[in-house]
Amino acid sequence: MTSIGRILMVEDDPKDVELTLTALEDYNLANEVVVTGDGEEALDFLYYRGKWASRPRENPAVMLLDLKLPKVDGLEVLRQVKSDENLHLIPVVVLTSSREEKDLVTSYRLGVNAYVVKPVDFHEFVNAIRELGVFWAVINAAPPGSVRK
Amino acid sequence: MSWRQTRNDASTARPIASRPMSRTPRPYALAVGYVATSLAASLILQTSSRFPTPFPSLYLFAVALAAWNGGPGPALLSIVLSVLCLDYFFLPPLYSLQLTLDEVPVVIVFLLFGGLITRFSDVRRRVERDLRDARDRLQAEVVVRTEQASLLDLTHDTIFVRDMDDVITYWNHGAQELYGWSAEEARGQRAHELLRTTFPVAVDEIRAELLGRGRWDGELTNTTATGTRVVVASRCSLRRDHLGHPVAVMETNNDITERKRWEDDIRGLNRELAQRSTELEAINKELEAFAYSVSHDLRAPLRHMSGYAELLQKTAGAALDAKGQRFMATILESAKRMGDLIDDLLAFSRIGRAETRWTHVDMNQLVADVVAELRRDTAGRDIAWNVGHIPACDGDRSMLRLVLLNLLSNAVKFTRGRPRAVIQIGCLSASNGEVVVFVRDNGAGFDMRYVHKLFGVFQRLHRADAFEGTGIGLATVQRIIHRHGGTVRGEGVVDQGATFTFSIPKRATLEGGA
Hints:
heterodimer, A: 149 residues, alpha/beta, Rossmann fold, globular, B: 514 residues, alpha+beta, Helix Hairpins, 4 domains, five-stranded antiparallel beta sheet, five-stranded mixed beta sheet, 15 helices, 12 strands, 17% strand, rod-shaped
């Protein structure tokens, strides 16, 4: 899969990754997705470190962020992104299983752009992912410095 | 006889009044009397042939007595009278006041003797008067001091005085009551040996403060005569003499043993409370972590089950027969139901953990909002909404909304079988500081035999194929109402409807403005 990386997905659960990619396939957005399995890798991607050292100097158009992640958790990734001058314009959508108000409030305090609770129902899930993908990667005008279509 | 009488008069009289007493005419009359008596005695003696010579010394007795009893005035009078009598009756020429040169020395000697007697007597009288005054003043002082001392005995405080060697010099009734020793037993003993005092700081430090500041306050522990330890709030004051040298320490002690015990008890209870509170906090944290984990980790596998079943249906749907399709549908449905259960359970546990945000709640507005929402969801059904006036009350708006939503959506759900559903909501009473609200429907109702299960978590009184639901709505209602300090109950008749009644205080008193 040659990804041009308009959508950065930070998700440790391969099943969720597969379901998400399936949902985005119908809109031909699946190949735009870069998947990082934990918070640390996501930060490596954003800061062009490690295996991402040679990727084009462009920010993703949107970042789908799970909260419960190995190593560096989602809220920490969010905090770093939103406090970094070069990254804070990236739209970040928290995509999580957690309905906890604590997570919601913390995410918004840190400056998240959207907070979506993953529905259990597959149809709802698929719809949510599609809408997110289409809205942020296609409809929304990405901030300057982002990957262009 | 008579002089004793006069003296008695003087001693009973007040000290100041004794001076004018000597100026009253009575001592003068007495002086005249003494001289007259002396004259009579001389005349009698002269008539006797055995004592032919006159006795001028007899008149000196009269002068002495007059001076003794009457002071210088009467003494002077008696001297003059005596000289006149002597001259008239005994010195030639007899029966005349004429004086020959020969008698002058006799008269001069007599006058000198009389003057001396008067002088000595007067000095003695003055000394006696001063002594009497001093004694009277002393007596008055003793009366005042005794009164003051008995005042100290009246107080319930324990007061004793010790000298600079710590020896007890005064011990009041309160001290006897507290420590058990009488004043006689305590006086003369070293105070802090007798009381086996335990000091909070070094004794030298206390002494230094006493000498420096003139006082010391603190808590001491003493031992009473019966061996009981008592804790006292002690106030020591230093007494100095007129030269400024410290002479005594007055110690006023208040028994605070009981108070200390209470304080200790309260401290103990507080510690226990703090510990419990810490434990509770830990439990709450654990619960929160548990709920968080449930929220996160339990839903993911469900989503996967549902998702992959869906994908399977999509890719292999054509190969499945009707039975296979039904199985697939059941898997999807079960996953969804499990998701609903988890969501409801989490919402329920969140109510237990969430802080109640007290505000003034316009109940009419809240009911109108909820009814409007339910109307949208029940388009096409014939439902008569009878909404009565409900007074405003204090509570957590979002929680009360949840109460109304649960009760009214239940009413909507259980009247589904009615051609025309009638749902009533209103206020039963608004007295005693609380508002009682009822929600009544003409739906399926329930059997009152199972009313005790009505508000239990996951308890359902209807079969799942008759009415859907997780059985958590009424449990949520009860939890919210209890948190508001109110009560909730349900009444129903099978196939005739149900009425739910809940009360909430008009004014928040439970948790303040938290």
